[in-house]
Amino acid sequence: MPWEDAYKLAIGSVVPRPIAWVSSVSADGILNVAPFSFFNCFAANPLILGFAPTFTDDRPKKDTLANVIALGEFVINIATEATLERMDATGRPYPPDADEFVIAGLTPAPAIRVRAPRVAESPINFECRLHQLVQLGEGEGSGTLVLGHAVHVHVDDGVMDGTRIDPILLQPVARMGGPYYARPEILAFRRSDRT
Ligand SMILES: Cc1cc2nc3c(=O)[nH]c(=O)nc-3n(C[C@H](O)[C@H](O)[C@H](O)COP(=O)(O)O)c2cc1C
């Protein structure tokens, strides 16, 4: 099967996918932000989150990946409904010298432990140091899994319910196949003994 067909089947099937809205900075100080839905959390101690830029012929190395390799630091911001249009806008292919914060009307906020900026409009920001790069294939359609060690986490009080993040307050958005996004319908299914 041509890789493009396999890719379409995969992104239509593995849904809904959470979205890492990754902010980074180049060695020249140019700020960058872009969404990645090949994203998840893989370990808690150390806290490891990962996302995967894909290689395409026109974009062998996306700016985010170049920045992560150059500085070894980035921030994963959680995408929510309030910023859906702006998050989507940062997914377009801008040249490396473009600052997507300016283009999308977003506010860079300083991080505490990494040089990459946070997206101030996102209620959750994971400041990450590069833990490992896993090269998955080579050439068109291949990917690079970027595993980051979260060294500092910011959570807006407005999405908290005691010590937990409340999904109803968070209003996360997820990627579906094609041009579609999804918002979760929260099903209240709680056992009192569940941690
Ligand atoms: C919601 C969403 C999810 C995306 N997920 C991915 C992904 O997982 N991997 C990828 O390579 N590109 C993904 N893209 C496309 C990148 O965001 C796009 O190529 C972007 O221009 C990369 O920016 P950069 O060059 O500044 O890193 C996604 C786009 C959108 C809108």
Explain how this protein is built.
The chain has helices spanning about 5-15, 65-70, 85-90, 100-105, 165-170; strands at about 15-20, 20-25, 30-35, 40-45, 45-50, 75-80, 110, 120, 125-135, 145-155, 160, 165, 175, 180. It is α+β, with helices and mostly antiparallel strands and about 200 residues long. It has one domain: Pnp Oxidase, Chain A (Roll), CATH 2.30.110. The strands form 4 sheets. The protein has a 7-stranded antiparallel beta sheet with strand order 3-2-6-9-10-5-4, with helices on one face. Strands 1-13-14 form a 3-stranded antiparallel beta sheet, with no helix packed on it. Strands 7-8 form a two-stranded antiparallel ribbon. The longest helix has 11 residues, at about 5-15. The radius of gyration is 17 Å and the shape is globular. It starts with a helix and ends in a 13-residue tail after the last strand. Flavin mononucleotide binds near residues 19, 37, 62 and 88.
